[in-house]
Design a protein that fits this description.
Elements (H helix, E strand, L loop, with lengths): L13 H15 L5 H6 L5 H7 L8 H10 L4 H23 L29 H13 L2 E6 L5 H15 L8 E5 L5 H5 L12 E5 L4 H4 L4 H14 L6 E8 L10 H9 L1 E3 L5 H14 L3 E2 L1 H11 L6 H13 L5 E2 L1 H4 L13
Parallel strand pairs: 1-4, 1-5, 2-3, 3-4, 6-7
Helix pairs in contact: 1-5, 4-5, 6-7, 12-13
């Protein structure tokens, strides 16, 4: 094993958690020395050992080399690195946002989607997450569809992914890979559709599936990607696939027979939230950081947003702006309307 490494606390932050995971990987591989690992890569013993030190986020290239030196799945560790990077950046934003009166970063995401590390601020979708879990465990391919702004990406990233990671035994994925098709989906993602070795299943989440029809202009490339995707989740291949497609592109799935059959067997439509769900979205993120939302403001927003399936980004943006203009520990209607109507959605959804 070589010289003993300094202890690293995986609960101290995303960088430390990644370092801990790298150490666990090395231990499971039999504990080769960093000198042995360096001989299998183009990186020095120092670069590899620093990657697992937990002092700073290593580069993606070093993490991939570390994993491949131990015969681990390249795509899994690319995804782990990206999640650690995103979480570290979010942590840095939150730390930088601490003000003189002790406030932390905003509890609302504004126009941005929720990510897996935002699970503690993601509310209002418990029932839908339960339905999605049931669907994806019953079918090896499932589609999530809904209007733009209905929260499909957030549902997958901050709802489904944390739920899968919290599962135990064989229900817990070996690895979760998140991708978007892009211009050359087959060429770019072919290796990501190969399951990781082992008994547990690999999960592939394809967000913004409509890019297959908007960005990919080559019909042959599109067909090849779909063939790879559907073959990957065939029975016996240890891969499950979940795609999120914008509602106005749902009909495009019918152009490919096997895709149409798969979508027809297992799909979930994301509609507008109910009043109780909207109340959670409005009040619980503030409560999580010790703030309150004025009841009159909550009721007003619910009245204006109810039955509007694409209004969630504007709702979150309005709450973020209200949080920025609050006085004391309460978000109020006065703060909500304290900016120009053209810039602020609270007065006109």
């Amino acid at each position: 094993m070589g010289r003993r490494e300094k202890p690293v606390d995986p609960g101290a932050g995303p960088v430390q958690r990644l370092a801990h995971e790298l150490r666990v990987l090395r231990e499971k591989a039999g504990g080769p020395t960093y000198r042995e690992m360096a001989r299998r890569t183009h990186y020095s013993t120092s670069a590899l050992s620093h990657a697992a030190a937990g002092e700073q986020l290593p580069s993606l290239a070093v993490v991939v080399a570390y994993a491949e030196a131990l015969d681990a799945d390249r795509h899994e560790w690319e995804e782990r690195w990206r999640l650690a990077k995103d979480a570290a950046e979010e942590q840095a934003v939150r730390e930088a946002a601490v003000t003189v009166d002790g406030d932390t970063a905003p509890p609302y995401r504004g126009l941005a989607r929720f990510e897996p590390y935002d699970g503690d601020l993601f509310f209002g979708r418990d029932e839908l997450i339960g339905e999605l879990l049931e669907l994806v465990r019953e079918h090896r391919f499932a589609a999530v569809s809904g209007p733009s702004g209905s929260g499909k990406s957030s549902l997958l990233r901050a709802g489904l992914i944390p739920a899968l990671r919290d599962a135990s035994g064989t229900d817990r994925p070996a690895v979760i890979r998140v991708l978007t098709p892009g211009e050359h989906p087959a060429h770019t993602h072919e290796k990501a559709l190969v399951p990781q070795d082992g008994e547990q299943e690999t999960w592939v989440i394809v967000d913004q599936f409509e890019e297959l029809f908007t960005l990919c202009e080559d019909p042959e490339e599109r067909r090849r990607f779909l063939d790879l995707l559907l073959t990957a989740c065939a029975p016996g291949n240890r891969t499950r696939v979940v795609v999120a497609v914008r509602g106005d592109f749902y009909g495009h799935c019918a152009a490919h027979r096997e895709l149409a059959d798969a979508v027809g067997r297992a799909s979930l439509l994301v509609g507008p939230m109910g009043s109780d769900e909207l109340r959670e979205v409005i009040t619980k993120p503030s409560a999580a950081v010790g703030l309150l939302v004025e009841r009159a403001l909550t009721n007003r927003i619910i009245d204006e947003v109810a039955d509007q399936p694409g209004a969630l980004p504007m709702l979150s943006h309005a709450l973020l702006e209200t949080w920025r203009r609050r006085r004391g520990r309460t978000l109020t209607s006065t703060a909500c309307c304290a900016t120009e109507p053209t810039r602020h959605p609270c007065t006109r959804w």
